[in-house]
């Protein structure tokens, strides 16, 4: 096997078409989209096309898409953009750090934050949500799909409850791990804000987007020249944005087929894991978990050790989310929140698939797992 | 009427990407696509590429690698520096000093801070766009926590006495930030010698990619985060790193600062020939900005009796790409705040043109502009009632 990349939730390999688009923009559309001359107009046209493509991915209007430098900036912009001093915000305990850290900081400056717990599946309790909504609640920010265990939140029900209890509350959905993996019709979902990131769907790193429902006014995070309808200033990253557009277009086409393919990989993987003893599957094959994330605890080994053992077979996986995998002390808040025992947290590995992965790669990985585990587990005894 | 010849003289808005830069970036879009935070080899290689770029940026401005933080561009770096320093030092004071001719990334952030209870002094500039150092000194109070003055202006190219401002700030123990977005590659910069505490830069102004910049923050200076998130950039800036962009920034700054003197000598010679030609051939024309202390590629001139927008349009048809002011405000019809700050009346400010030269411009480009521009200006003046009155009125 050449290389088995099962870490697609950390980042994906940009598609060839994306790289071509990025290079083409750098070479031939280098004008500043804000410039009045023809080079600028050419760049502006490219921007428009990309905006339409990204909008189409979630069923938004082009003018509702604000390009950012990534998912984290989109999350920061959404949260800081809608709150008012001292207001109340609701989120969950298993959000990405680009949501949690913002809220922790806000708590220190006099905001009130409710962190909803999740059940053993990693899904929030709707009753707890309903009971948490208050008069001064301004924002509910919940991730669509969790990056570590792939649990899918019932966004439609969340919105329904919020609207019923307090019409002034804005709903922000971090869909960085959901876009291109679940069909999203944002108008039907009726959410106000949604974060996206290109590098999770075979687009370039360093570009993302925030959907802002028409009519919502945001306080900008980055002020300046007034680009992106004054919501996000700074010379537009045209090559990145245009590459994002191409990636969005590619993943949108035959999305259901892609989803089925990835589900097939997960199903096969789980089936074959039966050949390995003493494991716990933290993201089962069901409707509450995304098809492209398979989180498994291997008893008797440390995840990090197993990760490196797999690396010797040219298989790349992750122990948790990439952005925090360095520091052990900070990494494991998601797995404990679904009630995992410490030894199962320690031995957890996340396999995350893309539709370009194959079932053969799974078979190869199973063999590598068997060999690695028999060695490592013996060592431990 | 469309011209075949293309003369790009809008490098202050953005530059093309050098082939070497693009080439350096490409592997990080393909085989080397790993997330720099991943612990396996694919990730570790990405991590080293980022650290290598960080060293290059540090070296270019005389900083330490651990003082460089990558951002999504110049505006983010500016916003972060100003908001970050203001909020982190609020206990010490609430006064900020900046100038009237800063980029909007600074000015609008300062205005935002005013709404948050900060006080901001906008120091004036003289007719050449040089900051009034006396006024700057006199506006310092016990509450002053930050001085932010741009290194070089994006519209008129004036270079500020940064060393002197650094000295003043240091004496008074005030944090000094400079927006060096336009200066990198055009001016020798050493943040230690110049007592610069924070510095913003953006790759797309020196033949690097768009969407990536950096903020230098001297060790020991406390600023709050702007983008919270994962542990990236030593926990100071959340978000999966723009790996190819950062590699491109590293390569671009290395190239741009390898031979600043040589680059400047060549560009300045071209610029001076173009500028002198314009002033000679077109009457009632005024140079804006400092005659000597200016960016090597910058020309900013006001042609009396005409509108910059019309001029730009006709130039465009002849394949000459310039600008009336900064690119990001070109959508607005208000005259440039910079030109007003150097004392130009509205009607003169409206007739301004910025031509910013770059690496690929040639003697032939200059000849072509010198051939085309005077004719266009004359054509516009012939249609201008102001000009007609002026001529009729006799001088
Ligand atoms: C002086 C100055 N500062 C800041 C910026 C903003 O940089 P960016 O457009 O990369 O965000 C620019 C250019 O647009 C500039 O000329
Ligand atoms: C759920 C989730 N939200 C936000 C982010 C941040 O996106 P980015 O890395 O593009 O800043 C990530 C990925 O890192 C993520 O998995």
From TrEMBL, chain A:
The keyword Iron-sulfur applies. Belongs to the class-V pyridoxal-phosphate-dependent aminotransferase family. NifS/IscS subfamily. The keyword Iron applies. It comes from the Bacteria. Its cofactor is pyridoxal 5'-phosphate. PROSITE patterns: AA_TRANSFER_CLASS_5. One of its GO terms (molecular function) is iron-sulfur cluster binding. Keywords: Iron, Iron-sulfur, Metal-binding, Pyridoxal phosphate. This is Cysteine desulfurase. The lineage of its organism: Bacteria, Bacillati, Bacillota, Clostridia, Eubacteriales. It holds the Pfam family Aminotran_5. Residues 4-364 form the Aminotransferase class V domain.
From TrEMBL, chain B:
Pathway: Cofactor biosynthesis; iron-sulfur cluster biosynthesis. It catalyses: (sulfur carrier)-H + L-cysteine = (sulfur carrier)-SH + L-alanine. Residues 7-369 form the Aminotransferase class V domain. [2Fe-2S] cluster binds at residue 328. Its cofactor is pyridoxal 5'-phosphate. It comes from the Bacteria. GO terms for cellular component: L-cysteine desulfurase complex. InterPro entries: Aminotrans_V_dom, Aminotrans_V_PyrdxlP_BS, Cys_deSase_IscS, Cys_deSase_NifS_bac/arc, Cysteine_dSase, PyrdxlP-dep_Trfase, PyrdxlP-dep_Trfase_major, PyrdxlP-dep_Trfase_small. The active site is at 328 (cysteine persulfide intermediate). The keyword Metal-binding applies. It holds the Pfam family Aminotran_5. Master enzyme that delivers sulfur to a number of partners involved in Fe-S cluster assembly, tRNA modification or cofactor biosynthesis. Catalyzes the removal of elemental sulfur atoms from cysteine to produce alanine. Functions as a sulfur delivery protein for Fe-S cluster synthesis onto IscU, an Fe-S scaffold assembly protein, as well as other S acceptor proteins. Belongs to the class-V pyridoxal-phosphate-dependent aminotransferase family. NifS/IscS subfamily. This is Cysteine desulfurase IscS.
């Amino acid at each position: 096997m050449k290389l088995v990349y099962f870490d697609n939730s950390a980042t994906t390999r940009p598609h060839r078409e994306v790289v071509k688009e990025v290079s083409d923009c750098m070479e031939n559309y280098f004008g500043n989209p804000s410039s009045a001359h023809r080079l600028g107009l050419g760049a502006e046209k490219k921007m428009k096309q990309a905006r339409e493509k990204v909008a189409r991915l979630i069923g938004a209007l082009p003018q509702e898409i604000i390009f950012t430098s990534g998912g984290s900036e989109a999350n920061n912009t959404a949260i800081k953009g809608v709150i008012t001093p001292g207001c109340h915000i609701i989120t969950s305990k298993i959000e990405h750090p680009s949501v949690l850290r913002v809220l922790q900081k806000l708590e220190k400056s006099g905001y009130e934050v409710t962190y909803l717990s999740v059940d053993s599946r990693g899904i929030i309790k709707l009753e707890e949500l309903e009971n948490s909504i208050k008069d001064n609640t301004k924002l509910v920010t919940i991730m669509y799909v969790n990056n570590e265990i792939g649990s899918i939140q019932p966004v439609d029900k969340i919105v329904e409850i919020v609207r019923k209890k307090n019409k002034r509350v804005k709903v922000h959905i971090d869909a960085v791990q959901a876009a291109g993996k679940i069909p999203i019709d944002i108008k039907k979902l009726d959410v106000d804000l949604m974060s996206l990131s290109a590098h999770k769907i075979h687009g370039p790193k360093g570009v993302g987007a925030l959907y802002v429902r028409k009519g919502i006014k945001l306080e900008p995070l980055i002020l300046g020249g007034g680009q992106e309808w004054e919501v996000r200033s700074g010379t537009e990253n045209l090559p990145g944005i245009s590459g994002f557009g191409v990636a969005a277009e590619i993943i949108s086409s035959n999305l259901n087929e892609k989803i089925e393919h990835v589900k097939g990989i997960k199903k096969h993987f789980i089936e074959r894991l039966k050949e390995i003893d003493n494991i716990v599957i933290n993201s089962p094959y069901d409707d509450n978990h995304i098809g492209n994330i398979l989180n498994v605890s291997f008893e008797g080994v440390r995840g990090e050790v197993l990760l490196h053992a797999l690396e010797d077979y040219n298989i790349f996986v992750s122990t948790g989310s990439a952005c925090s995998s360095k520091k052990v002390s900070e990494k494991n808040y998601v797995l404990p929140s679904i009630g995992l025992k410490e030894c199962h947290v320690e031995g957890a590995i996340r396999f995350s698939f893309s539709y370009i992965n194959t079932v053969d790669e799974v078979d190869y990985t199973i063999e590598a797992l068997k060999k690695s585990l028999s060695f490592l587990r013996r060592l431990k005894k | 009427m469309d011209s075949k010849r293309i003369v790009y003289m809008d490098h202050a808005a953005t530059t093309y990407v050098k082939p070497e830069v693009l080439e350096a970036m490409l592997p990080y879009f393909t085989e080397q696509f790993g997330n720099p935070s991943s612990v396996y080899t694919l990730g570790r290689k990405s991590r080293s590429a980022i650290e290598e770029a960080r060293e290059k940026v540090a070296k270019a401005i005389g900083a330490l690698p651990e003082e460089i933080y990558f951002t999504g561009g110049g505006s983010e770096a500016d916003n972060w520096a100003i908001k970050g320093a203001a909020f982190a030092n609020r206990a010490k004071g609430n006064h900020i000093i900046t100038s009237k001719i800063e980029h909007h990334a600074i000015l609008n952030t300062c205005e935002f801070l005013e709404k948050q209870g900060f006080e901001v002094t906008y120091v004036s500039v003289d007719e050449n766009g040089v900051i009034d150092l006396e006024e700057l000194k006199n506006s310092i109070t016990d509450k002053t926590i930050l001085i932010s003055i741009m290194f070089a202006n994006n519209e008129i190219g004036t270079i500020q006495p940064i060393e002197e401002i650094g000295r003043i700030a240091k004496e008074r123990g005030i944090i000094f930030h400079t927006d060096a977005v336009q200066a990198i590659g055009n001016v020798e910069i050493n943040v230690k010698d110049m007592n610069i505490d924070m510095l913003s830069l953006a790759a797309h102004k020196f033949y690097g990619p768009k969407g990536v910049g950096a903020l230098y923050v001297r060790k020991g200076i406390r600023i709050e985060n702007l983008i919270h998130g994962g542990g990236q950039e030593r926990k100071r800036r959340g978000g999966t790193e723009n790996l190819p962009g950062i590699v491109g920034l590293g390569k671009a700054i290395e190239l741009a600062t390898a031979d600043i003197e040589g680059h400047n000598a060549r560009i300045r010679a071209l610029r001076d020939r173009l500028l002198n030609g314009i002033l000679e051939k077109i009457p009632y024309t005024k140079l804006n900005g400092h005659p000597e202390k200016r960016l090597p590629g910058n020309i900013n001139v006001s042609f009396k009796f005409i509108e910059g927008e019309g001029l730009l349009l006709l130039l465009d048809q002849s394949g000459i790409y310039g600008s009336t002011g900064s690119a990001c405000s070109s959508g607005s019809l208000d005259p440039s705040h910079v030109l007003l700050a150097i004392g130009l009346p509205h009607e003169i400010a409206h007739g301004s043109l910025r031509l910013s030269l770059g690496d690929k411009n040639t003697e032939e480009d200059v000849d072509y502009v010198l051939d085309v521009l005077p004719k266009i200006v004359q054509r516009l003046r012939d249609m201008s009632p102001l000009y007609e009155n002026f001529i009729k009125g006799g001088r």
